[in-house]
Amino acid sequence: MHELRTEEILTLRRTLVRTQGEDRIKLLREACGRSIRSPKALREWHDLLLFLLAHPANMDEHALATAELERVVGLSKAMVGGTERTRYGLINSGLEGAPLQSTYTHRLTRWMLERWGAALELFSVEAPLEEFRELLRLLLSPAEWETVDQSYTDVYELLNCTYGPSRAIQLQRLVQALTALRCDERTREHLWSRMQVYVKAEGAVGCGTTLARAPIDAPVCLPNGLQRGVDLMSAVNEPVAAPVRLSALQQQALIDTARIVLATLHRETDPVTHAGAVELFDMGRGLRIALYHLDVEHRLPFDSYVGFMAFRNGVPLAYGGAWIFPGRSKVGINVFPALRGGESAWFFAQLLRLYRQRFGVDRFEAENYQLGHNNPDGLKSGAYWFYYRLGFRPVTKALQRIAENEFKKLSSRKGYQVPLKLLKELVEQGLELIIASNHTPIIDTAALTTAVQQHVVVRHAGDRTLAMRRALDRLGKALPLGDLAEWSPEERAALYLWALPLDMIGELESWPAGERKRLVAVIRAKAKPTETAHQAQLSGSDRLLQAWSRCC
User: Fold this and answer.
1) Is the pTM for the entire model greater than 0.90?
2) 55 in a domain, yes or no?
3) How many other C-beta atoms lie within 10 A of the C-beta of residue 267?
4) Which candidate, 343, 299, 294, places its Cα nearest to that of 317?
């Protein structure tokens, strides 16, 4: 059998998506088992097999793709152990055992070290030597401080003298020393980011998307092919079943799976890195969506930033998140390259359905960056028209008219392309999808943050320690907080998060007793493992939302 090349695989992918019945599995059988010598071809073949596992026409196809994927793992290991060219061609591909090179937060790097140990090592340090000297000095004993001032030709000579020549040990010692440093995590992450440390992994078991899976029941097959269209407004209003029951071990495994998938594809999100809880929802037709809630320490004061990773038949499909606040929710999605070309519209409808049903969202916003503003990839991808076709519209009437005219041309003229200048004008603003009208004020949480800053400057001359002390003292008198010693550490953290924003409300003391009691419940709900209850209670806090809207 002749070699399976990249061009043939790409053609096969386009053909298989349109083909059904015996012809489809015949084409797949003819491709399986053939030699693959090009790293690019192996990457494309790997991604196509993942696509087929996520969207199998029948169980025979699923079994064939599963067996072939096992062979691909062997081919990947052989290429990694081969020439420098083949090894380099698989970097950050997501293939099991392929090399990984990237930069991550300190917390995720520490997790990766715990999981993969010596297989993870320092690849490079991009910080200038003089800056790295000062950062490293913070991690040494006073008796060693002067050693960083000696004549070193580069950062690596300094590291060799400080920790020895092993790049694996250098990484371990840097992470350990920074972990032991007496400072808060925000400062620790800031120092780590200034070091600009890149890591690499080779031969780490379970480091890839090849075998990364979410819990599933039996695979769901699509004998009638992919579902392209969707009635978005009907879909988002369909009730969602209760979360899938997961043991504590299964929940942790689901968090670990998301971290592995993102890390091996050179990506990272806060809700996954700093996950405090995870919920898994079965959305039907083999689609399951995991919601990742930030731990209390990393939660935002206003938006509930709830990340997601979607899985089709257990295969990672997409990731992203929503920034939820009463009146509207910003949402962003990224479909993994291996799974592109599938049921994107149907999947997105199910994602919005989940966020709407779980958090009561009536209005979704797609931010301008997601659409292509200062984002060439987003501009080229056609993301703007993907959202437009689903019912998202510009906020201003002027842009609504322009978008409507351009969409008519796209729909009626084959090959028509929106002029780049006009498209850039369209993506300067985000798009919104209004599912239901309500009386909730639309509050820009960025403006609310600015209002807090101005409050501290005007009322407390910029003294934030004084501002916090006064705010907590005032809230202790105005609200029925009870004995804070009886509050959990997470609940006290939530109170500190909201102290300054609540202190902006001048008439707080005059609120009815019931309203003030309800406000305390909203604060304490912010500290629960998920922010579901917090959002439900916040949505019903009309007096609070109206007060904040006046502050902006």
Assistant:
1) yes
2) yes
3) 15
4) 343
CA 333 to chain centre: 8
Provide the sign of the torsion angle of the four alpha carbons 57, 60, 66, 69, taken in this order: negative
Residue type present at position 473: D
- Let me know whether 397 and 450 are in one domain: no
Residues 14 and 157 in one domain: no
> Would you state the structure tokens that stand for residue 183, as one six-digit string?
């400072």
**Measured between alpha carbons, how far is residue 235 from residues 61, 220, 333, 353 in Å?**
29, 20, 18, 6
> Quick one: which of 257, 235, 388 has its CA closest to 311?
257
Please tell me the distance from the alpha carbon of residue 499 to that of residue 465, in angstroms, as a whole number. 12
Distance in angstroms (rounded) separating the CA atoms of residues 244 and 337? 27
Looking at the structure, tell me whether residues 166 and 239 fall in a common domain: no
∠ CA(517), CA(522), CA(523), 5° rounding?
95
pLDDT single digits (tens) 367-407:
899 899 999 888 888 899 999 999 999 999 999 999 999 99
Length of the chain: 552
CA 1 to chain centre: 42
Contacts of 307 (CB under 8 A, 6+ apart): 269, 270, 271, 272, 275, 291, 292, 294, 319, 320, 321
Q: Say if residues 95 and 208 touch (Cβ distance below 8 Å).
A: yes
What letter represents residue 2's amino acid?
H
The pLDDT value recorded for residue 38 is 95
